[in-house]
């Protein structure tokens, strides 16, 4: 493992809350892009377990440690190489917390209260009503974006990969950077968004893919589990009988075919629209193709899941590498703020 992170190519930080095994939405939406970015930038990828405690997440803490390991296994399964891109556990990196405290001293509360992303997430979690009164939520959840900014800035990150709908989340980090640099001098770069153009994939019930909905297909799912989930998928509601003409553009099964079975989509569309292809056969075809594409990941996941000791070694080496960078960043921060050295 190289001695330190080199920022000449630009530096990327991104992370996820450990809520358990990752599904194909995570794979398509983030992880495949992370694998590519580790060859183009100096990357750090995080398992942000403090964030998992916010919004009442502390009540599910009994599963937190296991979820951290499950997430690390999935990172490694899809090809994140800790020799190139350290995989850090947020709570092992104390500089994240130190910078969060310092940043919280300069962030005006109205910035957080007007944050549309926090309002939307708080409503989704049932923490607030339709009025989205953020004075009713806990301090940790309200300050979530400040800790998120600390996660990014403590590495001096120059870029943050996000989906198009997440780009506004990074703007608050940029506002915090501008305020900090205005008060204390030019310490942090303003991180740029790296827009990730990914196909949108819904859960098997046409809602957002989410563990809480039970509508996920996981990266490590066995073929029989994939078949079971695909069998439940919602198709064109107007195609009642096998021979009825279908409308592929409103069918979630067809949207999966376009991602995982693109070479057959023209034939599937023609046969569906003519009534020649029934939904049962269409789903069976999809489950087979999806299972085949996930098979290499399934086998790789089994290999990584055999030993927690190996995952622990990844965490230890990654933390040692990452802390060399965070130490230098925090030395600049303390000097700028004029804290006791």
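Q: What amino acid sequence fits the structure above?
A:
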């Amino acid at each position: 493992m190289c001695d330190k992170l080199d920022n000449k190519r630009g530096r990327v930080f991104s992370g996820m809350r450990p809520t358990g095994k990752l599904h194909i939405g995570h794979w398509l939406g983030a992880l495949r892009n992370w694998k590519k970015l580790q060859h183009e930038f100096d990357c750090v990828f995080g398992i942000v377990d403090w964030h998992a405690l916010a919004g009442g997440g502390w009540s599910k803490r009994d599963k937190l440690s296991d979820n951290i390991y499950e997430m690390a296994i999935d990172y490694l399964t899809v090809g994140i190489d800790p020799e190139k891109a350290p995989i850090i556990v947020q709570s092992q990196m104390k500089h994240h917390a130190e910078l969060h405290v310092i940043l919280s001293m300069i962030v005006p509360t109205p910035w957080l209260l007007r944050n549309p992303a926090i309002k939307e997430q708080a409503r989704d979690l049932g923490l607030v009503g339709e009025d989205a009164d953020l004075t009713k939520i806990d301090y940790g959840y309200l300050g979530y974006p400040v800790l998120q900014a600390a996660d990014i800035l403590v590495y001096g990150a120059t870029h943050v990969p996000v989906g198009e709908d997440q780009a506004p989340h990074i703007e608050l980090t940029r506002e915090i950077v501008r305020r900090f640099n205005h008060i204390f001098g030019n310490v942090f770069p303003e991180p740029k968004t790296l827009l990730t153009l990914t196909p949108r994939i819904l859960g098997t019930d046409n809602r957002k893919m989410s563990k809480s909905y039970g509508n996920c297909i996981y990266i490590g799912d066995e073929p029989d589990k994939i078949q079971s989930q695909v069998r439940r998928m919602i198709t064109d509601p107007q195609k009642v009988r096998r021979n009825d003409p279908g409308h592929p553009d409103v069918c979630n099964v067809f949207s999966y075919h376009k991602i995982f079975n693109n070479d057959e989509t023209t034939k599937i569309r023609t046969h569906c629209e003519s009534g020649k292809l029934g939904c049962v056969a269409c789903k069976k075809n999809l489950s087979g193709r999806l299972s085949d594409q996930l098979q290499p990941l399934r086998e790789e996941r089994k290999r990584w899941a055999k030993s927690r000791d190996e995952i622990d070694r990844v965490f230890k080496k990654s933390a040692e590498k990452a802390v060399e960078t965070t130490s230098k960043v925090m030395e600049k921060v303390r000097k700028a703020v004029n804290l006791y050295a």
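Q: And what stands out in the fold?
A: Residues 7-201+308-337 form a domain with the Rossmann fold fold (CATH 3.40.50.620).
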